[in-house]
Write a structure and sequence with these properties.
Length: 261
């Protein structure tokens, strides 16, 4: 998705700094020779390097208008199967990397009293699934931190939006974005989840070009939403989950209301 969004922005004449561990693909496919394109080799889990990258972007282009956080991957495995190292790595990339970018970007947005942080989460930020607990944890957290950021940043006229895509035909289900737990436990049958995701690769219903176009439109809104669901599948999953939650809350309302003095 990041490459498509970069190409779209450049095609529309915008200035883009795009970060990746390996910038070769970005340069070859997006902005080779384009003066509006700044490829940045970056490990977003390194907060110091992130701040340097943001500073470099501001110096190169003279400002910063929008920060999009899109990095992410998923381990496949139950919570018991995942090692401490695996779980922490998932959160380092999917969550703390986003926090690093937000902190560095907000320093500039706060000074200029404008800006927009767009965090790409997932329908899994509202609806949990088995065997992707580390991913779900990071995406639920991303929804909450975006809501908090929106309240904090409003004083500086800075916007924050969390995007909740469904299943789009990106490379996310390809090898590399999905990693199976190193120490599987047969009883969980999490290998079937891994296989089902792999089989779905290339058949997802969502059009990634339409996805990035809507993200572009979001960045152009004067009063953007804090939450933006993209994809009929995501909308159905999230609204059904909210209805189920409301039903469960109502079922136990007497217990909920019984705890005051």
């Amino acid at each position: 998705m990041g490459l498509l969004l970069t190409k779209l922005l450049l095609d529309k004449g915008h200035k883009v700094a795009a970060a990746s561990r390996n910038t070769k693909q970005l340069i070859e496919n997006a902005g080779n020779g384009n003066e509006n394109f700044l490829p940045v080799a970056l490990d977003i889990t390194d907060s110091g390097k992130v701040r340097q990258a943001i500073d470099k972007t501001i110096e190169h282009f003279g400002g910063l208008d929008v920060a999009v956080n899109n990095a992410g991957f998923s381990y496949i495995g139950s919570l018991e199967e995942l090692t401490d190292e695996e779980f922490r790595k998932a959160l380092d990339v999917n969550l703390f990397g986003t926090v690093n970018v937000i902190r560095a970007s907000m320093a500039q947005f706060r000074k200029q009293h404008s800006g927009h942080v767009i965090n790409i989460a997932s329908a899994a930020g509202y609806v949990a699934n088995a065997h992707i607990g580390s991913y779900v944890t990071s995406k639920f957290a991303m929804v909450g931190l975006t809501e908090s950021l929106a309240l904090e940043a409003a004083y500086f006229n800075v916007k924050a939006t969390v995007v909740l895509p469904g299943s789009f035909r990106t490379s996310f289900l390809d090898e590399g974005s999905l990693t199976y737990a190193k120490h599987p436990i047969g009883e969980y049958k999490s290998d079937k989840t891994f296989q089902s995701f792999s089989v779905r690769a290339g058949t997802q219903p969502g059009d990634p070009q339409k996805l990035v176009e809507e993200i572009f439109n979001l960045a152009d809104m004067k009063n953007p939403p804090v939450h933006l669901i993209l994809g009929p599948d995501s909308y159905k999953m999230i609204t059904e989950k909210m209805e189920a939650n409301s039903k469960e809350f109502a079922e136990y309302i007497n217990v909920s209301m019984s705890t005051n003095f």
